[in-house]
Fold:
Amino acid sequence: MENLLLAYAFMIGLIIGSFLNCFIWRLYKNESILGRSYCPHCRHKLAWFDNIPLFSFLFLKGKCRYCQKNISWQYPLVEFFTALLFTLSLAAMLKAGIYTPLLLIHSWLFIFSFILIFVYDLRWQVVPMVFIWPLIVIMFTLNVLLGFSPLILLLIGLAGALFFALQFLLTQGKGLGEGDIWLGFLMGVSLGRFDLLILALILAYFIGAIVGILLLVIYKKKLKTKIALGPFLASGAIIAFLYGNNLLNWYLHLL
Ligand SMILES: [Zn+2]
Structure:
């Protein structure tokens, strides 16, 4: 029974991941999310069989059927990771024995949103504010419905925002963007716990440092292009959300 549920979660994740790819693109282009998908190179409308998550990419060998241009690796990767993380979050809920529709909606929206932020900031070095602002309201509302205190949520959100606002002031806006302040607020409000927020930030900077060192080793010299903070913050947020309790327990046992 559990395996069947997890298989469903994976399939739903593939479909939502496919929608997410389309949503990211249309958010950037400021287009309606209604209407058929099309190839970004030749703008040819895609048939349903060009649009099956993962399989179409494999079947078409990563090229558009109509113009033969390469399809971005973003498409299968986002589909796969959305499916994987949807499955892992449901597995964590089943293991803990707490699963309600509201909790599932909260978890999947959390994963959806932070994958979006990851990809968007990686591609265009900017946090999509038109998405972040309504998302803050939705995540806040969902957490209040799940029993969190509105005041505490607000305080944790402010702590997240303040963390980046201070850096923003200290570096005079060179180290990070204004969007990161809102992203800090969103992380606080969606994680809903102060310890998880701190863990997410530590993880983000830790992953950032490792990636920075790897890039330094690979490219042998200092990179001129600035790497956006968003993808690391999104990674930290997702890991803290899914495995925060395990990581904190493990850390406390070390002490
Ligand atoms: Zn094409």
